[in-house]
């Protein structure tokens, strides 16, 4: 099972200037819980936006830069190599960014998404979810509160 995990705002917005454009503590807490003790696959720019390897996970970084090195991480040159490097994990997670999501949506089995019900200015976008390929299997809606500024939903899709 290969799972894409992402937080997406309206119009499939992911981020701007290599950063998330919202802060939802509930989403971050859930992300940490769901991905703990798994392999997490991400592009170099996503890794650099995090600033360090995510703890309690095997961090796999995809880059075309043959000289790139990240202490405590596995560095590969393609999504296929990343999948191969995570083969001992029954459920590796793909964390993005936009270009990695675009490639991974072709091979993933599951989408684990947080929809942020707000419109933001963005320069990175999640691919369109083709409902002839993906079936929504669960959805939980949450209203904004004192900690989470925006309404959001946790939504799961499985490849048909």
How are the SSEs ordered, and which strands pair?
Blueprint lengths: L2 E7 L3 E3 L9 H11 L3 E5 H7 L7 E5 L10 E4 L2 H7 L7 E4 L1 H7 L5 E7 L7 E2 L8 E9 L9 E8 L1
Parallel strand pairs: 1-6, 1-7, 3-4, 3-6, 4-5
Antiparallel strand pairs: 2-8, 7-10, 9-10
Describe the structure.
- An eight-stranded mixed β-sheet has the order 5-4-3-6-1-7-10-9, sandwiched between helices. It has a two-stranded antiparallel sheet with strand order 2-8.
- The protein is of the alpha/beta class.
- It has a single domain, classed as Dihydrofolate Reductase, subunit A.
- It is built from four helices and ten strands; from the N terminus they run E-E-H-E-H-E-E-H-E-H-E-E-E-E.
Brief rundown of the structure:
20% of the residues lie in helices and 34% in strands. With 160 residues, the protein is an alpha/beta fold.
């Amino acid at each position: 099972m290969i799972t894409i995990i992402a937080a997406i705002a309206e119009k499939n917005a992911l981020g701007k200037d290599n950063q998330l454009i919202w802060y939802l503590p509930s989403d971050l807490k859930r992300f940490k819980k769901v991905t703990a003790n798994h392999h997490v696959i991400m592009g170099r720019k996503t890794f650099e936006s995090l600033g360090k390897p995510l703890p309690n996970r095997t961090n796999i970084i995809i880059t075309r830069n043959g000289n790139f090195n990240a202490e405590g991480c596995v560095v590969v040159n393609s999504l296929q190599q990343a999948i191969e490097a995570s083969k001992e994990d029954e459920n590796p997670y793909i964390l993005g960014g936009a270009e990695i999501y675009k490639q991974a949506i072709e091979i993933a089995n599951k989408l684990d998404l947080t929809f942020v019900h707000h419109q933001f200015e963005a320069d990175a976008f999640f691919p369109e979810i083709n409902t002839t390929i993906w079936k929504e299997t669960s959805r939980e809606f949450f209203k904004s509160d004192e900690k989470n500024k925006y309404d959001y939903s946790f939504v799961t899709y499985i490849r048909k």
